[in-house]
Amino acid sequence: MSLTPTASQTVGPFFNFALTTNASLGILAREGAKGERVFLSIRVVDGAGAPAQGDAMIELWQADAEGCYAHADPNFSGFGRLETDLNGTCTFETIKPGCVANGSAPHINVIVLARGLLKQLYTRIYFADDPANANDPVLALVPEDRRSTLLAKPVQGRDNTWSIEIRLQGEAETVFFDL
Q1: For residue range 45-71, what is the model confidence (pLDDT) as tens digits?
Q2: 3-state DSSP call for residue 26?
Q3: Strands 151-154 and 89-95
Q4: What whole-number distance in Å separates Cα of residue 21 and Cα of residue 15?
Q5: Could you tell me the residue range of the domain that residue 34 belongs to?
Q6: How many CB atoms lie within 10 A of CB 55?
Protein backbone atom coordinates (compact mmCIF):
# COMPACT_ATOMS: atom_id res chain seq x y z
CA MET A 1 0.00 0.00 0.00
CA SER A 2 1.35 3.45 -0.85
CA LEU A 3 0.83 6.43 1.40
CA THR A 4 -0.27 9.81 0.10
CA PRO A 5 1.08 12.90 1.85
CA THR A 6 -1.51 15.26 3.26
CA ALA A 7 -1.46 19.03 3.34
CA SER A 8 0.29 20.84 6.18
CA GLN A 9 -1.84 22.32 8.93
CA THR A 10 -1.20 25.50 10.85
CA VAL A 11 -0.97 25.59 14.65
CA GLY A 12 -4.12 27.68 15.19
CA PRO A 13 -6.61 29.33 15.60
CA PHE A 14 -7.66 27.81 18.88
CA PHE A 15 -5.73 29.68 21.54
CA ASN A 16 -8.54 31.88 22.81
CA PHE A 17 -10.62 28.95 24.03
CA ALA A 18 -8.09 26.25 24.78
CA LEU A 19 -4.73 26.77 26.45
CA THR A 20 -4.76 30.39 27.57
CA THR A 21 -7.98 30.88 29.52
CA ASN A 22 -6.08 30.98 32.81
CA ALA A 23 -4.92 34.62 33.15
CA SER A 24 -2.86 33.71 36.22
CA LEU A 25 -0.38 32.08 33.82
CA GLY A 26 0.72 35.64 33.03
CA ILE A 27 2.01 36.07 36.58
CA LEU A 28 5.44 34.47 36.85
CA ALA A 29 6.35 36.30 40.05
CA ARG A 30 3.96 36.53 42.97
CA GLU A 31 4.28 38.89 45.91
CA GLY A 32 7.51 38.16 47.77
CA ALA A 33 9.46 36.91 44.74
CA LYS A 34 13.14 37.79 44.91
CA GLY A 35 14.33 40.26 42.29
CA GLU A 36 13.26 43.39 40.46
CA ARG A 37 9.56 43.10 39.60
CA VAL A 38 8.82 44.05 35.99
CA PHE A 39 5.86 44.08 33.64
CA LEU A 40 6.65 42.90 30.11
CA SER A 41 4.23 43.92 27.38
CA ILE A 42 4.57 41.92 24.16
CA ARG A 43 2.76 42.91 20.97
CA VAL A 44 2.60 40.46 18.06
CA VAL A 45 2.07 41.83 14.55
CA ASP A 46 2.13 40.38 11.05
CA GLY A 47 4.30 41.58 8.18
CA ALA A 48 1.93 44.46 7.41
CA GLY A 49 1.96 45.61 11.04
CA ALA A 50 -1.57 44.36 11.78
CA PRO A 51 -1.99 42.97 15.30
CA ALA A 52 -2.47 39.26 15.97
CA GLN A 53 -5.95 39.87 17.39
CA GLY A 54 -6.42 37.06 19.88
CA ASP A 55 -4.77 34.71 17.38
CA ALA A 56 -1.38 34.31 19.02
CA MET A 57 -0.14 32.66 22.17
CA ILE A 58 3.11 33.60 23.89
CA GLU A 59 4.97 31.28 26.24
CA LEU A 60 7.84 32.54 28.37
CA TRP A 61 10.41 30.76 30.46
CA GLN A 62 13.27 32.41 32.25
CA ALA A 63 15.91 32.23 34.93
CA ASP A 64 15.36 33.74 38.36
CA ALA A 65 17.02 36.92 39.64
CA GLU A 66 20.22 34.95 40.36
CA GLY A 67 20.40 33.50 36.83
CA CYS A 68 19.25 29.99 37.77
CA TYR A 69 16.64 28.01 35.84
CA ALA A 70 16.39 25.43 38.65
CA HIS A 71 15.23 28.00 41.16
CA ALA A 72 13.96 27.40 44.68
CA ASP A 73 11.88 30.58 45.12
CA PRO A 74 8.29 29.43 45.84
CA ASN A 75 6.99 32.83 44.69
CA PHE A 76 8.53 32.56 41.21
CA SER A 77 7.48 30.01 38.59
CA GLY A 78 9.75 30.99 35.69
CA PHE A 79 7.02 30.01 33.17
CA GLY A 80 4.13 31.96 31.71
CA ARG A 81 1.58 31.67 28.90
CA LEU A 82 -0.91 34.21 27.56
CA GLU A 83 -2.95 34.86 24.45
CA THR A 84 -2.81 38.21 22.69
CA ASP A 85 -5.76 40.60 22.99
CA LEU A 86 -7.48 42.50 20.18
CA ASN A 87 -4.45 44.82 19.94
CA GLY A 88 -2.12 41.82 19.58
CA THR A 89 -0.76 42.45 23.07
CA CYS A 90 -0.28 40.50 26.28
CA THR A 91 1.45 41.60 29.47
CA PHE A 92 3.37 39.39 31.87
CA GLU A 93 4.22 40.15 35.49
CA THR A 94 7.63 38.75 36.31
CA ILE A 95 11.09 39.67 37.58
CA LYS A 96 14.13 40.75 35.64
CA PRO A 97 16.26 37.62 35.28
CA GLY A 98 19.88 37.56 36.29
CA CYS A 99 22.88 36.70 34.11
CA VAL A 100 23.07 32.97 33.43
CA ALA A 101 26.28 31.06 34.30
CA ASN A 102 27.17 30.53 30.61
CA GLY A 103 27.64 34.29 30.24
CA SER A 104 24.19 35.04 28.85
CA ALA A 105 22.84 38.49 29.60
CA PRO A 106 19.47 38.76 31.37
CA HIS A 107 16.94 37.45 28.85
CA ILE A 108 13.59 35.73 28.58
CA ASN A 109 13.06 32.76 26.27
CA VAL A 110 9.94 33.01 24.12
CA ILE A 111 7.79 30.66 22.05
CA VAL A 112 5.28 32.21 19.64
CA LEU A 113 2.32 30.23 18.31
CA ALA A 114 -0.14 31.86 15.92
CA ARG A 115 -2.62 31.19 13.16
CA GLY A 116 -0.79 30.68 9.87
CA LEU A 117 2.36 29.23 11.42
CA LEU A 118 3.24 25.64 10.63
CA LYS A 119 5.34 25.35 13.78
CA GLN A 120 6.14 27.46 16.81
CA LEU A 121 8.76 30.20 16.63
CA TYR A 122 11.56 30.60 19.17
CA THR A 123 13.15 33.88 20.14
CA ARG A 124 14.60 35.75 23.12
CA ILE A 125 13.86 39.05 24.76
CA TYR A 126 16.76 41.05 26.17
CA PHE A 127 16.55 44.32 28.09
CA ALA A 128 17.81 47.35 26.14
CA ASP A 129 20.88 49.09 27.51
CA ASP A 130 21.80 46.22 29.85
CA PRO A 131 25.62 46.27 29.96
CA ALA A 132 25.74 42.44 29.90
CA ASN A 133 24.25 42.44 26.36
CA ALA A 134 27.67 43.34 24.96
CA ASN A 135 29.08 39.95 26.02
CA ASP A 136 26.07 37.69 25.44
CA PRO A 137 27.17 34.71 23.27
CA VAL A 138 23.77 34.29 21.56
CA LEU A 139 23.20 37.99 20.92
CA ALA A 140 26.70 38.13 19.40
CA LEU A 141 25.54 35.65 16.71
CA VAL A 142 22.80 38.03 15.57
CA PRO A 143 23.83 40.63 12.97
CA GLU A 144 24.19 43.98 14.70
CA ASP A 145 21.53 45.65 12.55
CA ARG A 146 18.96 43.00 13.62
CA ARG A 147 19.65 42.92 17.38
CA SER A 148 17.13 45.67 18.10
CA THR A 149 14.34 43.18 17.25
CA LEU A 150 15.26 41.31 20.44
CA LEU A 151 15.44 44.30 22.79
CA ALA A 152 12.59 45.26 25.10
CA LYS A 153 12.56 48.95 25.84
CA PRO A 154 11.38 50.75 28.97
CA VAL A 155 7.93 52.33 28.66
CA GLN A 156 8.09 56.07 29.34
CA GLY A 157 6.06 57.12 32.37
CA ARG A 158 5.45 53.56 33.60
CA ASP A 159 7.96 52.36 36.17
CA ASN A 160 9.30 48.82 35.75
CA THR A 161 7.36 48.31 32.51
CA TRP A 162 9.08 47.10 29.35
CA SER A 163 7.66 46.57 25.86
CA ILE A 164 8.65 44.78 22.70
CA GLU A 165 7.00 44.13 19.35
CA ILE A 166 7.34 40.71 17.79
CA ARG A 167 6.98 41.04 14.03
CA LEU A 168 6.25 37.69 12.38
CA GLN A 169 7.56 38.59 8.92
CA GLY A 170 8.56 41.39 6.59
CA GLU A 171 10.65 44.47 7.25
CA ALA A 172 12.07 44.50 10.80
CA GLU A 173 11.04 40.86 11.30
CA THR A 174 11.99 39.62 14.75
CA VAL A 175 15.00 37.34 14.86
CA PHE A 176 13.82 33.75 15.40
CA PHE A 177 16.07 30.83 16.27
CA ASP A 178 16.11 27.42 14.60
CA LEU A 179 15.90 24.97 17.51
Answers
A1: 998 899 988 789 999 999 999 999 988
A2: helix
A3: unpaired
A4: 8
A5: 16-167
A6: 20
pTM of the model: 0.88
Domain count for the chain, please give it. Answer: 1
Residue among 173, 145, 161 at smallest CA distance from 45: 173
Cα–Cα distance measured from residue 48 to residue 167, given in angstroms and rounded to the nearest whole number: 9
Which residues does 161 contact at the CB level (< 8 Å), separation at least 6? 38, 39, 40, 41, 154, 155
Residue 99 has pLDDT above 80, yes or no: yes
d(CA 48, CA 37): 33
What count of residues does the chain have? 179
Residue 172 in domain = no
Q: Judge whether 117 lies within some domain.
A: yes
CATH number, domain containing residue 138: 2.60.130.10
- In-domain check, residue 84: yes
Handedness of CA 49, 169, 125, 25 (dihedral sign): positive
C-beta neighbour count of 96 within 10 angstroms: 18
The 8-class DSSP code of residue 24 comes to: G
Give the amino acid at 41.
S
Give phi and psi for 7, each to the nearest 5. -65, 155
SS3 string of 61-98? EECCCCCCCCCCCCCECCEEEEECCCCCEEEEEEECCC
The answer to whether residue 1 is domain-embedded is no
